[in-house]
Amino acid sequence: MQEASLRLLIFLGIFTVVALIEWFLPKRVPRESRWTRWKVNLSILLLDVVIQRLTLGAAAYVTAIYAEEHGWGLFHLLDWPPLLEGLLGFLILDFAIYLQHVLSHALPVFWRLHQVHHTDLDVDLTTGTRFHPIEILVSLLWKIGLVAALGIGPWTVVIFEATLNGAAVFSHANVRIPERIDRVLRWFVVTPDMHRVHHSVYPRETNSNFGFFLSVWDRLCGTFIDQPKDGHEAMTIGLPAYRNQAKLGLGTLLAMPFWRRLIRSSGKADRD
Q1: I want to staple 213 with a disulfide (CB 3.0 to 4.6 A). Which of 106, 118, 167, 249 is the partner?
Q2: Are 164 and 143 spatial neighbours (Cβ–Cβ below 8 Å)?
Q3: Rounded CA gap, 232 and 14, in Å?
Q4: Where does the UniProt entry say this protein principally localizes (predicted)?
């Protein structure tokens, strides 16, 4: 319960600060109704939270505690200094989320879930909460497996989860960061301008800039694109097949992975 409360407080704090900055220093003029989008995106967030608490919620943290108490995982065999193990555990988890994101675009079974995130027709901090509940549960299982296999410590898991939640809000924020500052920041972390490219309607740009927190993985793996072709203010957000906000309600998004029609990350329609 303490772990969940700490993560919630950190998330609410970051969300509030980013929302205020978006209000006073927006990067792009919204194309769609903020109220309509926020109603949908925050409804998905609430549903995700409820489902997590009823299912796997704190499972990664509990797994870390169990692994620590029973000597599970590679780190317990190596017996390296705790600080080194914590740093490596954090880096491995962050790369694992990067890899999961790449696979979410590459494999149709995962794209069915992840396309819900990409149907948002504007990008702001609430886009960072727009993930289908099943995708959230798949991500939790992925992290649980890594925590158990490596024996990543409980506090590393708490810090990583809080960082991941905050980074999702920050990297999707519609905030204007001076270009000189952005260019320095993006050498270390994923900035809003860097990640916004990933939400472009162009397939090449959609399949780039997969990082959530650390930007190094995109550079090392060759998936980095510096700027969108049309510029940040003029670029089109979303997927080619879904351009009507009125048809992207909560029920539609929850049912989308189960439709026979599959919209690939290439932007083309296909059939099973």
Answers
A1: 167
A2: no
A3: 23
A4: membrane
Q: What is the pLDDT of residues 209-252, one digit of tens each?
A: 999 999 999 999 999 999 999 999 999 999 999 999 999 999 99
204 - beta bridge partners? none
Burial call 36-46: b when 16+ CB within 10 Å, e when fewer: ebbebbebbbe
Say how many Å lie between the first and final Cα of the chain, rounded.
Answer: 43
List, as one string, the DSSP characters of 93-117.
Answer: HHHHHHHHHHHHHHSHHHHHHHHHH
DSSP the chain: -HHHHHHHHHHHHHHHHHHHHHHHS-SS--SS-HHHHHHHHHHHHHHHHHHHHHTTTTHHHHHHHHHHHHT-SHHHHHT--HHHHHHHHHHHHHHHHHHHHHHHHHSHHHHHHHHHHHT-SS-SGGGGG---HHHHHHHHHHHHHHHHHHT--HHHHHHHHHHHHHHHHHHT------HHHHHHHTTTB--HHHHHGGGBSSHHHHTS---SSBSHHHHHHT---SS-TT-TTTPPBSBTTB--GGG--HHHHHHGGGSSEEE-TTS-EEE-
Residue 65 CB-half CA count within 13 A? 7
pLDDT digits (tens, 9 = 90+) for 8-52: 888 999 999 999 999 999 999 999 999 999 999 999 999 999 998
pTM score, two decimals?
Answer: 0.92
